[in-house]
Amino acid sequence: MSQPATVASPPPLKDDMDIVIPTIRSLDFLETWRPFLEPYHLIIIQDGDPTKKIRVPDGFDYEMHNRNDIDRIMGPKAGIISFKDGACRCFGFLLSKKKYIFTIDDDCFVAKEPSGKEINAAAQHIQNLSAPSIPLFFNTLYDPFREGTDFVRGYPFSMREGVPTAVSHGLWLNVPDYDAPTQLVKPLERNTRYVDAVMTIPKGALFPMCAMNLAFNRELIGAAMYFGLMGDGQPLGRYDDMWAGWCVKVCYLIQEIYK
Description:
Blueprint: E1 17-23, H1 30-37, E2 41-46, E3 61-65, H2 67-74, H3 90-95, E4 100-104, H4 121-130, E5 167-169, H5 180-185, E6 213-217, H6 218-221, H7 240-258
Parallel strand pairs: 1-2, 1-4, 2-3
Antiparallel strand pairs: 4-6, 5-6
């Protein structure tokens, strides 16, 4: 007796999320992400030498832009996009018309749970962005909107609806995102501790945002997700994404107060 064919469910938010990747090298790392990212549209921003050929594995739906495209499209305003730095991904943010953006670095690989199961970071970001945040009162069971948990005793009922989530900040294993002095004194330190937890950054608290594994809602963030100028011709380094994080936190707070 024949069995009815099973219909695979479509990837979450397939038509509502772009993947933005800044790169200076061939994107062989995408092979590890294929099960999770292949259904989505990729916006690849080639940094550095625009004549260098960048290889993208077969099967991915993508568009690729280099510095020549930035100069052509932006014209006299092209200088607002960093050159020779990962902050060039901002051009991808400008090009995207989707509600959500997930951006990763070109040397990020799929992490695994202690059981060995690969972690679908894109799906986790989507889950985070689709659920409310609770910045006004901390829940000691972390994310109350995850399956298997809820608000604890004493959490005010008037605050349990939460607020829309604007940014989902992912973490990573292996090399920590330390500042230069800390890296110098701890050159061999690695992060090997996997933590499965989702927490809301409290109202009034700033944080050092890292763009290595990041997703956000373009409709809520808009122009605030702009990375400070860095790279060629700029006097400062390694602050671009942190600057954007501070701007996002302050601007979103103002929006919540005055809307």
